[in-house]
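Notes on consecutive records. When two proteins share a document, each keeps its own sequence and its own token line. Never mix them. Below: protein one.
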Amino acid sequence: MTILTGTVQDGKSDANVWLRRFAGVYAEWLGRDIFPGSLNVATSASFDWSSPHLLPARRRFSLFPHGGERDLFMIPCTIVGLKEQPCWLWTTTTAAENRPDPTVVEIISSVGLRATLTLKTGSTIAIEYPGDWAACSSTHIFQNARSEKMVSTSFSPSSANRADDADWNELRLLLQQCQ
């Protein structure tokens, strides 16, 4: 498990447009509705979406089959103090490859994270994510029929492909093993 600390910062309010537009797609992919907005966090270190340590947990989703113009990367995570709430580090593949500020990450969840955690611009948070798999006793996350389909760049949501509660519980157990 890796912990990344950072400071909440204002965003451009761009995420809410895309999360609203594709709300049904996100709900199908992640097994729950997603709050239409992201939490922007300026981290204490660069976040490299192509790091070999992240590849087992990173999932690629395509919006192309749904009228979108981008593919996305998501990595499941938790925020310290909100462990029971599934969250995801979230970016477009374009932004992951060509980032103007590699220390900024965006987090999405089914709740408004600012309101739920009473965060303000400048608040400090810690994000836990599966980033150092070598230290874990199990290196398989979401390794089942549903999630293997999720890795596909041509992923098409269906009830068989959702990151459902069973998958979330599997992630939570894996994060505990990595502590």
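Protein two starts on the next line and is unrelated to protein one.
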Amino acid sequence: MPWRWRGGRGGARVRIDTDGGHEHESRWYNGNRNGAIGSVGNGRVVPVRLGAMANTMPAANALRKRQEGGFFAGLRAVLRLVVPVVFLLFTLAGAYLYSDSYVTLFDDNFASSQWRQMPGYWLTWGHVLLAFSFFAIHAANRRYGQAYAVAQIVVAWAIIGALVVAAQTYLGAAMTASPIPPPRLGGAFVFAAILAHLIAAVVFDRMRGIRWWEAPFFGSFWAGATFCFVFYPVAFAGTEEPWINHAIVHFAIMSAMAIVLLFPYWLIRPLVRPLPGFGGY
């Protein structure tokens, strides 16, 4: 059977074999036959399956690129959370460190018989600094959107939980000497804080728009309202504490902080711009 070579596409060579007036073409890669292209003879062409290498190589390359792209996309998403999570942990650490620093500026306005209602009896700077945790969530939400803000909250509180368990396990004796809140008080705080953080993320995302101040203000406002009117009933209902008065006073402070924190939010707007696809100014 006589045959001859001719050039083909994709780095292949085409071998043409002549048999009884019919010509048969086959594609060869690197000296190896990979399948027939077709049969030519008597004015008709009969298609034949292409070689396996010609079919599978592009699909394998595309699959490998998708796998590599998925890995690097996941790694990029994880790295994006580092700064937001550290920022949120920093604000919560500040609120905790000042939880025993009482605000005594207004105690002179109360009679001695109203000592339970004096701010110096129950209000600490930690109550005030808690509003900064909402600001940390707004910054992440502005840049990356609601999904990242929720992930920031979950990861930060998971780290806090892991640290508490580790401290109780390995520093049990030292922990007994430090002030530990009662289980009801600690559980009420964690539950109210996480719920308030999630409310901050959701409200901020819903209020994105042309007026730049709406999202951070209403996010902080409703987050503060959620914390105050969830924490105090859960922690103090049924006790002698005037928790309704405390909740109202704390809510007023949170509302004022929602206005105050608009200034630093306005300052970071040129630095923390929303990614494409997220609104807000």
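For the record: The longest strand covers residues 32-41.
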